[in-house]
Recover the amino acids of this structure.
């Protein structure tokens, strides 16, 4: 046995013999965080708020909210961010998750776009047309809300339920006539492919994203979660004050055109907000309507789906 091997074995035996509390202290605390490309991770890193963390973040990348929520439901990640209706839809199915922080964008961040040189000039022109949207989330609901406001029966429109990558191709090739989508996809189509915004969802939807956590992590990692919420709020504050810098740095990370991201950030105007009683009432109204329209499969008591304690110090 070599001297190096003897030292390694001695170190291992010393660790095993140490009290359980001491061993726990030597193990770094970890938060397993789900990220959607160009989202939470780039925001925290670009803003600088992820420096000097008192715990380690293990990032997992997801292409969209649905697989992230599946991982959250299965306790494969501790927390992640997604649109409000995506969260409530999965929560309504009995998933062991809660929302504990929120950010809001302007309703203009959700829009129906059409080709700039096409004949569709107003929402009424969508009758008989094929419109793409992602089922069960923000732009499913906002599409229906825009049609409802215009007095157009849903049966008068042909829906194509497509995720963004598929919908972008279908929109550009003319397989669909319009696309209900969110930023930065809207800005990409407007600036790079000549699309035009037909209508947006201002005044029709909360336009919120939620930080959601698996119930086990909620019980076991409250200290880290509270710290994460505060850093997330500071990051959004930095992003609002430094949109150009945010766009420039994020463009390099996700390889998207900087002008597209800058336009998207100017449209979004995203900021951290408390989950207070007023927001809960707004969510409840939207969730009830979404359930009535079939966007969310089950009924939800919003007050039971959220933990208000983490954001009480934030200002609306």
């Amino acid at each position: 046995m070599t001297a190096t091997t003897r030292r390694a074995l001695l170190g291992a035996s010393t660790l095993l013999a140490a009290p359980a509390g001491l061993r726990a202290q030597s193990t770094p605390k970890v938060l397993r965080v789900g990220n959607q490309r160009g989202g939470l991770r780039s925001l925290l890193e670009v803003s600088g708020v992820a420096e000097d963390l008192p715990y380690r973040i293990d990032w997992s990348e997801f292409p969209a909210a649905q697989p992230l929520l599946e991982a959250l439901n299965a306790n494969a990640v501790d927390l992640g961010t997604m649109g409000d209706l995506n969260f409530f839809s999965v929560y309504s199915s009995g998933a062991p998750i809660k929302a504990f922080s929120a950010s809001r964008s302007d309703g203009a961040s959700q829009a129906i776009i059409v080709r700039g040189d096409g004949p569709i000039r107003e929402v009424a022109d969508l009758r008989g047309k094929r419109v793409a949207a992602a089922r069960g989330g923000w732009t499913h609901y906002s599409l229906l809300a825009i049609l409802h406001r215009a007095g157009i029966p849903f049966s008068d429109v042909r829906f194509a339920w497509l995720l963004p990558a598929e919908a972008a191709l279908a929109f550009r090739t003319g397989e669909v006539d319009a696309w209900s989508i969110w930023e930065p996809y809207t800005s990409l189509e407007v600036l790079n492919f000549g699309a035009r915004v037909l209508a947006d969802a201002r005044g029709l939807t909360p336009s919120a994203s939620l930080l959601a956590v698996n119930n086990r992590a909620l019980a076991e990692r409250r200290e880290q979660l509270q710290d994460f919420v505060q850093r997330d709020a500071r990051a959004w504050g930095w992003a609002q004050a430094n949109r150009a810098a945010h766009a420039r740095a994020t463009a390099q990370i996700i390889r998207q055109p900087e002008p597209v991201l800058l336009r998207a950030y100017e449209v979004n105007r995203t900021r951290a907000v408390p989950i207070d009683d007023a927001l809960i009432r707004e969510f409840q109204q939207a969730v009830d309507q979404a359930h009535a329209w079939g966007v969310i499969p089950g009924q939800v008591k919003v007050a039971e789906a959220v933990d208000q304690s983490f954001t009480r110090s934030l200002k609306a």
